[in-house]
């Protein structure tokens, strides 16, 4: 038997993405965005409205970064989602986190988050099925603490995911299989 649920953004897990930009005065702005994905291997799509300070900054600077939030910084990541850059100019400073300039784009890298995608702004889309920022990934960096033999070890990233049904965060830490391999056992 199945239980009928309220319609919501019900795909789980949803990413907890930290989208960082520079404000007009050069200060750092970060927002929490769960509605984001890869469109292509090097193309990010973020479902964000133009009312977000982040979108205004992306359009003005032509760049942004997307970092993967981790369990160690869940409180800060959540803060970036509950406080608006339109209302609080020093939102990033209040978090206690630090930032560096990205190598390839005019946007900040949040040092404490383990993985960062540096993106050039491609376009803003707005139609009856949604709206959002499209960006081309031009550089990806990872903190040395999450690397093993030159590759990212996702169990060390300790990424968090958003649960849209109960509004909780969950750690994504354990590898349970090998993609494009384990299913071959059922192939005839």
TrEMBL record:
Keywords: Flavoprotein. It holds the Pfam family Flavin_Reduct. GO terms for molecular function: FMN binding; oxidoreductase activity, acting on the CH-NH group of donors, NAD or NADP as acceptor. The keyword Flavoprotein applies. It comes from the Bacteria. PANTHER family: FLAVOREDOXIN, FLAVOREDOXIN-RELATED-RELATED. Belongs to the flavoredoxin family. This is Flavin reductase family protein. It comes from Flintibacter faecis.
